[in-house]
Amino acid sequence: QGVYTYEDGGVLQGTYVDGELNGPAQEYDTDGRLIFKGQYKDNIRHGVCWIYYPDGGSLVGEVNEDGEMTGEKIAYVYPDERTALYGKFIDGEMIEGKLATLLSTEEGRPHFELMPGSSVYHFDKSTSSCISTNALLPDPYESERVYVAESLISSAGEGLFSKVAAGPNTVMSFYNGVRITHQEVDSRDWALNGNTLSLDEETVIDVPEPYNHVSKYCASLGHKANHSFTPNCIYDMFVHPRFGPIKCIRTLRAVEADEEL
After folding, report:
1. Where is the SET domain (predicted)?
2. Domain range holding 182?
3. CA 227 to chain centre
4. Which of 13, 16, 127, 222 has the most beta carbons within 10 angstroms of its beta carbon?
5. How far apart are CA 22 and CA 120, in angstroms?
6. pLDDT in tens, the chain (261 residues)
7. 191-200, long-range: CB < 8 A, 24+ apart
8. What does the alpha-carbon distance between residue 93 and residue 247 come to, in Å, rounded to a whole number?
């Protein structure tokens, strides 16, 4: 057994044979969060491996000979550790995923049940002009948790509501949109910035006309949440198998069914 510490402070705990990683291993990020669990063979990831995102999502499957998440039986698992998109991935990128349920995990091996008649999902990161190549295909995880209805805040238009009771720290909804620069947002008429959300120092996510209408865009619904002085949710970073790096809406406290987020 050995522990290797990366320059950035990340840690790999593994089994070394003659200086090479062989056998079970776990990797942790600088905050001590588990980011990888699986096997190594001659210093290369091997067999069924799990890659964990800080947001609670994960990738799981049997890696190829180069140790990459490539194959026809790879899955992305949502933060509920139950809802999954299962199918063809190349180096962790979803090429063709279908809705599945993670029924159980035995000794690190997941067991999935495919949903009959599922839609097909693929990695489809937005650009500055294209919000989605399938704007009316809802997200299956989000669809079970939220719905859009008239806001309880007077004259606020539509709002986002919880479909189910959920505990604190639960991802409820996704905030996808076109990707534009801070410069563009700051230099245009402020009236155009009703649905902008900063992603990072470079990028702002925006849901412009006509995509603010659910009839034109419903692949994600995070932009429908209104602001409150006593919020029950926060925006948080999320790595999504279809939308790529975006933000999500995460509960701060327990919420009830039909509560506005």
Report:
1. 144-261
2. 140-251
3. 22
4. 222
5. 36
6. 888 888 888 999 999 888 889 999 999 999 999 999 999 999 999 999 999 999 999 999 999 999 999 999 999 999 999 999 999 999 999 999 999 999 999 988 999 999 999 999 999 999 999 999 999 999 999 999 999 999 999 888 999 999 999 999 999 999 999 999 999 999 999 999 999 999 999 999 999 999 999 999 999 999 999 999 999 999 999 999 999 999 999 999 999 999 999
7. 195/223, 197/223, 197/235, 197/247, 199/245, 199/246, 199/247
8. 18
C-alpha–C-alpha distance, residues 92 and 24, integer Å = 20
Phi, psi dihedrals of residue 200, rounded to the nearest 5°:
-160, -165
Give the Cα-Cα-Cα angle 51, 168, 94 (nearest 5 degrees): 30
Give the global pTM: 0.95
Is 128 inside any structural domain?
no
Give how far Cα 60 sits from Cα of 132, 163, 171, Å: 25, 28, 20
- In contact, 110 and 102? CB cutoff 8 Å: yes
Residue whose structure tokens are 């939220």: 146
**DSSP letter assigned to residue 31:** T
What distance in Å separates the CA atoms of residue 221 and residue 94, rounded to the nearest whole number? 21
10 Å Cβ neighbour count for 66?
Answer: 9
Same-domain pairing of 13 and 116: yes
Q: Does residue 116 lie in a domain region?
A: yes
Domain check: are 147 and 237 in the same one? yes
Q: Return the residue matching tokens 């603010």.
A: 212
Instruction: For residue 38, give the nearest of 57, 16, 55, 13 by alpha carbon.
Output: 13
Would 257 be classed as within a structural domain? no
